[in-house]
């Protein structure tokens, strides 16, 4: 360690062996003003699985019964203070700006021009 290292903070990321990737395509959030706390419930939205399927002995196609038209699966919640929320917002803004610039510069899919 040299003299300059005493003025640095080194952060190591440790990824848990049971890490679970979650595909999300939406989120619901709430805020508690008195505690400066935000809770985010990311979800994955998809068509529902049938509650039951009825097969007819006549050979007609099966009938599927559904309880709803769309399901939102919430696998986790993220609870954070205001400062953490600001840090996450800033990190997302940087990554969004990077991807948008890459689309503009490289003509990536999703940036079709009229």
Short recap of the structure:
By secondary structure, the protein is an alpha+beta fold.
Task: Give an account of the 3D structure.
The protein is an alpha+beta fold. The chain has a domain of 62 residues. Helix content is 22%, strand content 27%. The protein contains 1 helix and 6 strands; from the N terminus they run E-E-E-E-E-E-H. Strands 1, 2, 5 and 6 form a 4-stranded antiparallel beta sheet that branches. A two-stranded antiparallel sheet has the order 3-4. The N and C termini lie far apart (56 Å). The model has no long low-confidence stretch (mean pLDDT 88).
Secondary structure: elements and pairs:
Layout: E1 26-32, E2 37-46, E3 52-54, E4 63-65, E5 71-74, E6 78-81, H1 82-106
Antiparallel strand pairs: 1-2, 2-5, 2-6, 3-4
């Amino acid at each position: 360690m040299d003299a300059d290292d005493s003025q640095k903070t080194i952060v190591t990321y440790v990824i848990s062996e049971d890490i679970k990737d979650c595909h999300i395509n939406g989120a619901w959030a709430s805020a508690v003003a008195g505690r400066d706390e935000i809770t985010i419930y990311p979800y994955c939205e998809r068509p529902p699985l049938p509650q039951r399927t009825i097969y007819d002995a006549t050979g007609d196609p099966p009938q599927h019964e559904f309880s709803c038209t769309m399901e939102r699966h919430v696998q986790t919640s993220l609870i954070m203070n205001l400062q953490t929320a600001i840090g996450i917002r800033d990190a997302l803004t940087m990554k969004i700006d990077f991807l948008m610039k890459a689309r503009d510069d490289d003509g990536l899919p999703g940036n079709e021009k009229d």
